[in-house]
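can u do me a favor
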């Protein structure tokens, strides 16, 4: 059913609601949050290990990244 909805050029509001419900039931939201957290942590580790950013700048970047990806 999801494939059918996604294949529509201009799905109506009911089709969009059905697609969202399908995605919710299969755990897409939690999966996306987990992936975002993992990507966030990996990005922060890489920044820290690169050693090219000073401590204060790294902390500001960390704050920005955590704020942007607060999954």
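np, heres the sequence
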């Amino acid at each position: 059913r999801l494939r059918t909805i996604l294949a529509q050029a201009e799905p109506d509001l009911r089709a969009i609601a059905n697609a969202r419900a399908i995605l919710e039931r299969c755990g897409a939201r939690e999966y996306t949050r987990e992936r975002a957290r993992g990507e966030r942590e990996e990005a922060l580790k890489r920044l820290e290990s690169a050693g090219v950013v000073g401590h204060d700048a790294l902390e500001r970047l960390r704050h920005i990244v955590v704020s942007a990806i607060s999954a």
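Residues 28-50 form the longest helix (23 residues). hope that helps!!
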